[in-house]
Amino acid sequence: MAQSLEPGLHLLDPAGHVMSSQVQWQNLKKFLALAQFFRLPLFLADSAALALLSQDALRQRDRAMHEPHCSFLCAGRPITSFALPASQWQLSPGFLLAAEQKGFQLLEVRGRDPRLASLDTLSGEEIPLHFLFRLHGYIIHVVLLYERSGGYLWHGALRLKATADPTFAPFRLLDYGRHAGAYDRPELLLTVVDGLDVRVPRNISRFLVQRQEARFLECRYHDARSFLQLYPDDSSAAAVEFRRKAKVLLRLAAQTLGRLDIPFWISSGTCLGWYRQCGVISYSRDVDIGIFISDFRPQITTAFRDAGMSLKHQFGKVEDSLELSFLGEDVKLDIFFFYRDGDVVWNGGTQAKSGRKFKYVFPSFSLCWAELLEVKVRVPCETLDYVMANYGGTWSVPVKSWDWKSSPSNVIENGVWPVAEWAGLIQVY
C-alpha cells in the first residue's frame, strides 16, 4: 500500500483501493451527515485532532484540494471523539436506528444518574453516558455531557457491563471515560475540517487544558448517609443560616479566583465536610480553601475587596507561611497557601499574640473537580490521604472542640516570627 508523502496527504494505491484514512474519512462523513439530519449539535472533542487544529487552525487545505483527505480528524488513530449536550440527545430518538441502518455497529454504555442521587435518595436510574459507533474497524466515540446543578457540564466514567463485548473498541485509546469529568460549557464555532462541517470549541487550547484537568469525584452519598444516621445534621436556624452563607461565600470565592485564573481547592474542615457528609460542618463556622503558593497573585486581596469582602488578617509572607482571611456574609473565608517540599506539601499557621509559627504537612496530591453546595470546586484527588493527614484515623467521628495549634495530626511547631518583623508579618484588621 502506498505511504503518505507528507502528514495529512493520503493517496490511492496502484490497485485503486481507498487507503485507510480515506475509509475513516468516509465513516466520519456518513456519521456527521446523519447527525446533521437529526440536528444533533455534536462538537469535536478529540484531543489529537484538536491539538493539530490548534497548531494549524488557519490552514484549511482541504477546501482547495480536489480529493478530500483526513489530515486532522483521523490524526493517525482509529478513534475520533465527539461530545454532545445530553439534553439534545434526548430530542433525537431515531438517530441510533438510522446509524445502524447505515452499517454502524453500536455499543451503548449506561450508568447511574448522579443528579438524582442525594442524601435522601440513592436512585438507581441509569442514563446513557457513552456511545461507540464502529464501521470498517474505525470507532466514533460520542460522550454525553449532562448539565449539573453547579452550572457545569459532566460526563460519566465508561464502565463496561459484564455482558458487553470487551473487544468492541481499543478502550485504552479512548480520550474519555477513564474517569468522570467536569467542564465549563465551551463556546462553539462551526467550521470546515477536512472538507466536513464540524463544530469545534472556539478556544481549543483552553478546552484541551480542561480535558487534562477534568477528573471529577462524586460525593460519597452512601457513606454520608450512614454518617448522618449516626450523627444527625444540625437543623437549627443558626446551622441552616450558616449553610446558606457558606454557599454564597464559596460561590463568591470560586468566581473571584476564577477571574484571576487561580486554581483553589477546599481544605481543612470544608474538605472534611464534603468527604464525610457531602456538606459543610455547621459548627465549623468558616470556609477553608487552599492555593499553591506558585499560583499566588498580588491582586487577590483587591479582587476579594472588590467582591465585597473585607480582609480580616494577613499572616506570613509569600516566601513562608502566607495566610489570608476575609470576612463576607459574617462568615470567615480562610485561604491557606501551600508550599511544595520534595514529596510533601505544607501550609503554615501563625498565632497573632505570640508570633509562634506552625506547619501542617500533607502527602503530595493532585486536584480533581467535585461539587459542594451546588458549587463546582476542586478537592485533593487523594482525598482520604489528605483528610487522614489532617484529622488522623478518627476523622469520621465529629469533634466540636478543636485547637488548630494542637489538634491536627499533622501539626509541627515551626519557630517564632522575629518580633522586629511582626508589623509586616502579623496584620490583623
TrEMBL record:
UniProt membrane topology term: Single-pass membrane protein
Domain Ribitol-5-phosphate transferase FKTN N-terminal: 8-247
Location of this chain's protein in the cell: Membrane
Keywords: Membrane, Transmembrane, Transmembrane helix
Main location class: membrane
Source organism superkingdom: Eukaryota
InterPro entries on file: FKTN/MNN4/W02B3.4-1, FKTN_N
One of the record's GO cellular component terms: Golgi membrane
Name of the protein in its database record: Fukutin
Organism: Poecilia formosa
